[in-house]
Task: structure prediction
Amino acid sequence: MGSNCSLKTELPVIYEVSRVVQEAKDVHSIFLKGKLDCKPGQFIMVWLPGVEEKPMAVSEVRKDEFAFCYHSVGPFTQACDALQKGDKVGIRGPYGNSFSLDKKTVVVAGGIGISSVSTAIDGLSSPVVIHGARDKDHLVYTKRYKSMILTTDDGSAGRKGYVTGALAEVLEKNKDIEQVITCGPEMMIVNVLHVCQKYGVECEASLERYMKCGYGICGNCLVDDKILCIDGPIFNSRILKKMKELGKFARLKTGRKVSLKEYYSWRG
Amino acid sequence: MQILREIHVQRGYCAVVKMLSTTLCGVKLRNPTILASGILGISKDSAQRIIKGGAGAITLKSLCHEERKGHPGPNMVVIDSGMLNAVGLPGQGMDNAIADFERLDDLAAPIIGSIFGYTIEDFGIVAKKMASLSPAMIEIDISCPHMSYSKPFYADAESIQKITRLVKKNAGGIPVSAKLSPNVHNIAELALVAEKAGADAITAINTASGMKIDLETRTPLLGNKTGGLSGPALKPIAVRCVYEVYEAVKIPIVGTGGVTTGEDAIEMIMAGATAVGVGTACYYHGPDVFSRICDEMKAWMKKNKVKSLDEIRGSAHGK
Result:
């Protein structure tokens, strides 16, 4: 009884950048040399020494390298833009829970949210993938996943409209689909959840909040009483349906709870 | 009684356990474990989660007169014997908190509001606003080791006296605890100053100032470079501080620093603590660590035929 034997160290491990790949306009993958034991949908804390530390989804895992993928929006991602082969980056994790890969699945990804579900796409056997963005420039991984159903708000690529329309069609035609895995803007997730409920299909969504520690301590990533970094970031339909703050509120860097609209206008 | 217990379990209470019940400044606690400030306590939902985890009371994350973003990351790093943090007291600010919380006396356990300010006057203003939410107690965070504001205060007897006096005056009868720093020459003297200035309790201790350097990049790991050391590495320092403060003052002590197990809590109480702060242990064992610590305390008490914590409080003294 009362032993401290579970004490552990969780320091960033330093990896070297092996290559940088442009995925779309303002979207890059940073590949790091080394192994990462990671389940689909997990994330890492990325430390740029002397700059900042931020959570990033693990977007790709290969035999001797792994990647995170980002859309340049603020000071941290702009610092990522300066990374070159051989640069050193600190990595903690992987953290968080993971997607279930044992069901017949449709993956629905909005914009850069695809980088949070790409390890699930890689792990599933022949999933249907629906990827949407506001326009052609914001579609990601169009070369990596050639058979995706694409949608754009303005019709500049794929079909004009939202991912939810495409999802309803797929679920209408394929009665054997058991679950939907999704990540993207939170209102999209809410709408995907509605479609899933209508068709009686399970849904697992990866949520996003401003996260400071990844240790379950700072509280900034709370959604209701769920601590996103340790309880999530993936939640199933049963929990998503009960969330009071889903699609409505999120917390700024200061911890102040604001409307999702205000949160997104700050996040860019 | 059985029905009452079931209701309590359903509501997230622990079963009624008299052997651990504690009174701190007139506030009744079902057990002596108190969530330390800075861990998760930024909303009522998160407080409720920790109450479900078994905490006897909750200390909210410190709030000041303005909204703050905190320090750049990394904000926390877990080293081999504890944690270093430099979160930098981000917070929504007292005015937003009033709208967010509405009141603090309607949760299933007592809530302690933690406050700080950049000037002595700020402490007074924030104390008055915090008091309007009716917390069970107010804790004065006079001791954060990595904030420029607190450095002139935490080792200075005159500042501690003025801040404590002003907060006490503005707290409207709500008990006030002064949270002291271990990064001082003589913590007992400063505790006595706080007691004489009207403090109803002493929270000992805040984190110790520390640093971690990454060898490969030759860079301090924390965004703020220095931070506060917590967790098991801090515990011997905290036990020593509580022991010294107990010898100097008559007011109760919330012994805080590195408590991770039931035996740690018992040790803190033997040093003289009335209640026990628990923070970093939430990282090691999750938000349910409070129930775990209480179970371990009860097991120790049963084994050693101790019926109440009063029997062992301060028992390490005079030996």
User: Anything to note?
Assistant: Residues 26-71+88-213+229-317 of chain B form a domain with the TIM Barrel fold (CATH 3.20.20.70). Chain B has one domain: 26-71+88-213+229-317. The CA atoms of residues 86 and 227 of chain B lie 5 Å apart.
